[in-house]
Give the backbone structure.
Amino acid sequence: MTSLPYTRAQSLPAILAERIAILDGAMGTMIQRFRLGEQQYRGEGYSGQGSAGDRFADFPGDLKGNNELLSLTRPDVISSIHDGYLAAGADLIETNTFGATRIAQDDYGMADLAREMNLVSAKLARAACDRFSTPDRPRFAAGALGPTPKTASISPDVNDPAARNVSFEELRRSYYEQVEALVEGGVDVLLVETIFDTLNAKAALYAIEEFFEASGERLPVMISGTVTDASGRVLSGQTVSAFWASVRHVRPLSIGLNCALGAALMRPYIQELAKVAQGTFISCYPNAGLPNPMSDTGFDETPADTSRLVHEFAKEGLVNIVGGCCGTTPDHIEAIGRAVSVCSPRPALFRF
């Protein structure tokens, strides 16, 4: 196997060639279990290490739901979630930075805090990985770059198809700041995930490459798209094959799918991706089925359900990295890990 000259996580490609690696599950699902109120999001009731004190007590607007803020106000919550997934057997955990860009944080009036959120979140994930890593079982912190609430490809105005609410350059600048802080905070891998607009993703990937060139660092890059419905396309209209063709120039460590569909509905698209993306590893971390507001996690599938479905992917030789997205918990991740432990990873030789 010929890999890129990574400056971090140099052992990860060999691990993926040897066995199926486990990614963690949903951060948001686990945060909801703490039932935090508005004041808890502002930091009330926590005075431990990294406490924000009364820093956000009088911040204008509602902050409940800004999960990335919890890295600053309730680092104990984020650390305990990381620990739960690592104890369940995760090899990679994602930073609490899915919405930690200036563009996303502007909704809360916290754009200027985006860099700090990424830096602190990366440090929390790094510390958790260090607590659980052993010489024969290293754990990796994956810096999560979400899609932002805006799309560079689709008009937000049905009466004006040419209208856009964000530019490529705005996205690039926002992602560059995020990447710089995540790497400074100690992540091993960069994960561009839940991609519904490939142009947004290309802005993130451009920023990553720009940072690599400026810094001399080169981390493994993982890319994960989201098929939004039975058409088998991302929201901006590409099939998974076209999606791969649009991002393969980055030479990612892995390409895959996550979120929108549960594993049962995602399978044909993972099969297609595994067929066309011959030069890289394949990841898959589906939701726990379809949404169900009556369920404890908001989704239908139990750990036994999800692990059985993901096992089928592994048994078919489709995947190298598996985990969970919305509705999944440490119990799901532990069950998935057990289910795929008897399966061989998909063979992948880098051929670019």
Observations:
- The radius of gyration is 19 Å.
- Residues 323 and 333 are 6 Å apart (CA to CA).
- The mean pLDDT is 94.
- The first strand starts at residue 21 and ends at 22.
